[in-house]
Amino acid sequence: MIFSRRTMFWTAAAPALVGKTASYTQQEIEKKIVQRDFRGLTKQDLPTPVLVLDQEVFESNVRRMAVHCKSAGIALRAHVKVHRSADIGKRQVAAGAIGLCCATISEAEWMSANGIRGLLWTTQPVGPNKTSRAVALAKRDPSFLCAVDDASVVDNLDEAARAAGTRASVVVDLDVGIGRQGVLSAQEALELAQRITKLRNLRLAGLMGYSGAASHAIGWETRKKISEEAVGKLLEAAGLCRKSGIEIKIVTGGSTGSYNIDSGIEGMTELQAGSYALMDARYRTVGGKTNSAVFDDFGCAPTVLTRVISKKHPNKAAIDAGNKALTRETDVVKDWPGLEPRPAGAEYGSLVWKNADREPKLGDLAELIMTNLDMSVNMFDRMFVCRNDRVADVYSVLGRRGPAQR
Ligand SMILES: Cc1ncc(COP(=O)(O)O)c(C=O)c1O
Q1: Using a 6 Å cutoff on CB, does residue 55 contact ligand 1?
Q2: For ligand 1, mutation pick of 79, 123, 260 (most atoms within 8 Å of CB)
Q3: Which of 175, 178, 242, 374 has a CA that sits 20 to 30 A from residue 393's CA?
């Protein structure tokens, strides 16, 4: 058989390539990435294990959420913690997001350095390093916001902003059911908001409340109940603040799992959904509004592309995606019913099966849909964006090494 590297688009079902030499050397692939010339490059050429992103599924996810938020009349400030990629963040903003939420100050710094505005750091700055960086970012970009839940943090931040000759904008974070951060009651939110309004170097932008319990609860009706309670608490706090004369412009929270619940609640101004852009296998199990078995409003766009590197045992094949490439043993093999991925060490995984549509052969490619996006994407420096088996683009995952990790 003659393989033409220009014309042949491989799939996982393509003939196994055991001993063929690569169409492109690693050096040529790196050069193509620098030159942004992906012509002729296919999944078969990539060094496995590697993170690939289904471009059509990704673009459709981004579009769908943007259209939903627009028609529901709620702003989207999409959370980047799942992808940590400015390439993706820019596309979310281009599709209509007013900005991005970030889990760490470094995420906010990278997104800002990539020209993205309207960033909300959803954790409060504690300690000198993060306080200074939050203030520095606020000085560079007055649209930057961070969450706060404590009077001492607020006072420190005010002092740091004064010393830096700037004003920092904050949202008061209310614990609406996650139990990890946030003031505990609407009354406490009011008290912290009042304190902030008295400080000269801080500006209160609004309130935040994220409920992880609502995001991942199984069953849309159950999520609706939990989410309505969570948002109710947030709106109670907003009401108290407004009653005492404090302006609350932003009321932000919500997630992918509650996107079509929170967006319908009067008073929520912003949605912080993040996972929707990529989606993982576990999120799909929570069930959707229209399909109670599978939450299929958004498709799983990323996979770990891996290759069968040994096939010596019945009903079992060794792959080159091990614990350094995957995070959970509950990852799923894409479009290959009957196969189950299992961990088999740092650099090895295995595929096992009882009855598979087709048995994996030595050299076969398989794609694994990860259980948990945040952890799995964080294993890779880049994503190869593919249209079918063709590489169409490469997106960077930021902060994978060096001082900017935290
Ligand atoms: C504070 C905050 N907001 C929003 C989100 C986005 O949630 P999801 O990825 O479920 O859309 C997260 C995710 O962990 C979060 O921590």
Answers
A1: no
A2: 79
A3: 374
Q: Is 254 in the pocket of ligand 1 (CB under 6 A)?
A: no
d(CA 105, CA 94): 22
- Single pTM value for the model: 0.92
For the chain, what are the domain ranges?
A: 26-55+298-405, 56-278
Task: Please report, in tens digits, the pLDDT of each residue of the chain (406 residues total).
Answer: 333 333 333 344 445 556 566 789 999 999 999 999 999 999 999 999 999 999 999 999 999 999 999 999 999 999 999 999 999 999 999 999 999 999 999 999 999 999 999 999 999 999 999 999 999 999 999 999 999 999 999 999 999 999 999 999 999 999 998 889 999 999 999 999 999 999 999 999 999 999 988 999 999 999 999 999 999 999 999 999 999 999 999 999 999 999 999 999 999 999 999 999 999 888 999 999 999 999 999 999 999 999 999 999 999 999 999 888 876 656 789 999 999 998 888 899 999 999 988 999 999 999 999 888 888 888 899 999 999 999 999 999 987 766 656 6
Tokens of 391: 């590489």
Instruction: From 275, 279, 298, give the residue whose CB has the most ligand 1 atoms within 8 Å, as the site to mutate.
Output: 275
Residue 402 to residue 359: CA distance in whole angstroms: 42
Per-residue exposure over 338-368, b if at least 16 CB sit within 10 Å of its own CB, e if not:
ebbbebbeeebbbbebeebeeebebbbbbbb
Which residue from 47, 4, 23 is spatially nearest to 394, judged by alpha carbons? 47
In the block, which residue shows the tokens 């005010």? 158
Q: Name the one residue in this structure whose structure tokens are 């994407």.
A: 377
d(CA 350, CA 340): 8
Task: Look up the CATH architecture of domain 56-278.
Answer: Alpha-Beta Barrel (3.20)
CA distance linking residue 307 with residue 320, whole number of Å: 6
Q: Please report where in the chains the tokens 């491989």 appear, as a residue.
A: 10
Helices (H), 53-95: 55-72, 86-94
Tokens of 341: 């991925």
> Topology of 26-55+298-405 in CATH?
Lyase, Ornithine Decarboxylase; Chain A, domain 1 (2.40.37)
Number of the ligand 1 atom closest to the C-alpha atom of 257: 10
